[in-house]
Prior knowledge:
Oligomer: single chain
Radius of gyration: 21 Å
Amino acid sequence: LTPFTIDTIAPAINSATLITPSAEGIKINGGSIYEITWNVNDIFDENLGENPIKLEFSALGNFSDAATIAEQLPNSGSYFWNVPANLNTRTAKVKITAADLANNYASDESDNPFSINYPLLYSGNGNGFKNQNQTYRFRNFPKFLKTINLTQQLR
């Protein structure tokens, strides 16, 4: 008989593996491309496959609403994410999961929540602005003002 070993050990993944987005105060524009980065040396397993990485996103930050960003990625250290365009949140997080060939897995997530802002689109009529399918009108807008800079603030 040939001896064999059953792999029940999850990959080693450091709690600081996910580098970005992880710092405090990160603000990302919805609809932009954002580089998610991680430390490849913080992920180790004797049976790690060629494409062991899965990235997930949670708008709530607790992953009860987890959405897959990408999976079966190489442990390359970065991935360019197309950030959702129609989202405003201050509690978002990203999770990285490494799986070995025996389907054991370990994860790390953003150390701090980050914000995603859906940019406002100016309607061009001088009386308001448009965000997705909603138009907002200004009341008593001073006629002497020709230019106004609009920034969206999270509520």
